[in-house]
Amino acid sequence: MAVLDEVPGVEITVQVAGRDATEYDDPDAAQREPSEAAEVPTSIKYIECVGGAEFTITTRVQNTYGWGYMNHSLSSNVYVDGKSVNGHLISQSHLYNGLNTRITKGNTAYDHTTGQWLLQRFKFSAISTVDDAKKERVENDIKRAQDLGSIEVKIFRCLVLGKSHSKTSIRGKLKSEIAEKALKGKAVSHGASYSSEKSIAPNRVHVKNIDDEPIGIFQFRYRSRDALKREMVIPRTPSPGPAPDPEIAQMSREELQRLAAERLNQLRGIKEERKPVIKREIEEVIDLTDDNERPKTRRRLEEPEEAIDLTED
What we know:
Elements: E1 10-16, E2 19-20, E3 24-25, E4 42-48, E5 55-62, E6 73-80, E7 83-90, E8 99-104, E9 106-111, E10 116-126, E11 128-130, H1 135-147, E12 150-163, E13 177-179, H2 180-183, E14 190-200, E15 205-209, E16 216-223, H3 225-230, H4 246-249, H5 253-273, E17 282-286, E18 297-301
Parallel strand pairs: 4-16, 11-13
Antiparallel strand pairs: 1-2, 1-5, 3-4, 5-8, 6-7, 6-12, 9-10, 10-14, 12-15, 12-16, 17-18
């Protein structure tokens, strides 16, 4: 779960295929300059995604959060790939045994064709790159790529004004291709799309934010396992070592110990035969007599002895 010291009592978790996703720290966090630090407290985590798997976002608020100011509520605003989806309202009166949990399962939208409210469930979908050099295509895909592969939750303090009758539209299918130039080296592997649709009864309210900025931002950057390795979020799989010699593999433990002892004796013999190499030494003599002339430096070289290396080739 992602937490912020500046916003105690608020926790955000992403579930993939019904299980809490393993969170990895931002590998670039330590390299960020102080001037680059966000004005709003921000948590950045990486998670692994799987193509075709559904995911949800859970917001938990505990009674350790400071509710005192203006008897306010909290608005949990969710953005997936930069697009606003469902938000949740949490008030102190909603807490049960000191805890309230809200789960965002998808995008709630109004179908103007059927006159029904539908829940479009989130799922991960793989994307592929294309070598399309058309300027218009690249420019449009650059805008898409800025937020692609991201889940963001912004927490606002707010006041409830009443019921809302606004209607959001059905979201279309994810474009599975993106221009390679638009990614600019980012290891983005997936985007968010929608799976099954479910008819629901809407319950929407209108709120007014107390502050201009959120009190906390929780970011999750989702990638495939290979993409996480390319971004150095998780270690790369080490290359397999050389295959053992078939003859050595068939030797007994006693035979291996005998070979090791023989090799050790050989190495000791070579070490004993080696003689030290005498290096040329240079000694400087400086005349410190003050005669207004530039100090003279004389070099005295000692004749080096011939060094013979007896190391066997």
